[in-house]
Description:
The chain is mainly alpha-helical.
Amino acid sequence: MFDIVVAILPIIITFVLMDVFFPDMSSDPAIQRRLQGIKDFDSKRMNLGSDELFKSLSYREKLKKSNLLEMLKENSDYRIQFIGVIFNKFKFVEKIKYSLKIADIKMPVDIFFMLVCFLIVPFVIIGMLNNNIMFLVIGILAGTSPFIYIRMKFLKRRELFTQQFPDALGIVSNSLRAGHSLLSAFQTVAAESEYPINKIFKSVSDEISLGREVRDTLISMTDNLPGSQDLKFFITAVLIQREVGGNLAEILDNLNNTIRERYKLLGMIKTQTAQAQLSGIVLGLAPVVIATLINFINPSYMKPLFTTDLGGMALGLSFGMTVLGFFIIKKVTEIRV
Length: 337
């Protein structure tokens, strides 16, 4: 019983640490306070005289410059600098940095690796003390949970972007029809949309305001949200229109309708394939869960699988076939539109 409690405790602590180290950016208290301060400033400005209004506008311009300088500061990716010197020698660390970036997780890389080690080491120690390889397997699975969490955060962010993107296209096309520039349309989207649309378009408008080429800025949007076909269509449409001309507002309206119909079709396909996908998940997890329970209840029954050569071969073969079957079911139920 004590081993079970010790095995489950790091997993529970994991989810607690996720909420601490991986905050939800859409409900960040600091951001909400800044937005409320801007709203209060605008409401007070309506009641000021001409001299006071001039002073308030001057103060606001200074505040913008200070915010710009703060934005241009290079933030360190490491909490402990000497660890950063070591990690910079490995290429896979750059991939972790990029994964944290696209998932919009504000966390130093060294703290992330400390979290992974914290999840793996207790199971490794318990496995060595009990001479049970099952704890090592559980430790590896627990160590991969932060990577799974990053993937889930990224997929959730991309899903929110896909849902909100047609509305953003409508705002851009309406702004262009009203006579605004493309930069002004992006700023309108950043001001009126929700997370993550507002953050992506605000970064684009800020880069264009700082003098970066529109083409390079639009192409770099895919770096912040890779895998989004809708965003690629939008960037391609804008770049082609800037080169050959045409009515960009009409092009965006057609793209908007196409994206909405495509999203409806994706929803229908997801509904039709939900049962098959759930079957694949159950079939993939059932052997692992059953083997873990039997190992806790009757370790001697599972001991030949870990102590004999024939048992090791059977265990490896069954694990490989389970993983292969899971990916086959996932591939069959994955329909691209």
